[in-house]
Amino acid sequence: MWRDSWHIISVRKGNFKYIWDNKHPNQTRLYDIESDPDELHNLSFELPEIALGYHLHVDEVLIEMERTMSRQVDTPELNEEMLSRLRDLGYIQ
Q1: pTM of model > 0.70
Q2: DSSP of 7-18, one letter per residue?
Q3: Rounded to 5, what percent of the chain is helix, strand, coil?
Q4: Going by C-beta distance under 8 Å and a sequence separation of 6 or more, which residues neighbour residue 37?
Q5: CATH topology (fold) of 1-93
C-alpha cells in the first residue's frame, strides 16, 4: 500500500524536465525548458532515449518509496485529554 494513491514525479537536469504521473504512466512528458519554458511541446516521443534515461531515475524513486514505506500503521492510543483537544479543534465529534 502506498502512502498516497497519486504520485507525480518530476526530474529536472540540464535543459530538460521529465514528468511521470502514476495515473497516466504511459503519458510521460519531457520538456526542453530552455526553449519551451511554458512546457507546451512534449518531447517524450521525439527523444525516447532521453526520456528513458529520466525514467530510470523515476524507477529508482519508486523502489525507494517501496523500501521506505511503513508496512503497518499503528493506531495511536488517545487519552481523554487528547480526545478533548481534538474535539475542541473540530477534528472529531
Answers
A1: no
A2: -EEEEEETTEEE
A3: 30, 15, 50
A4: none
A5: Arylsulfatase, C-terminal domain (3.30.1120)
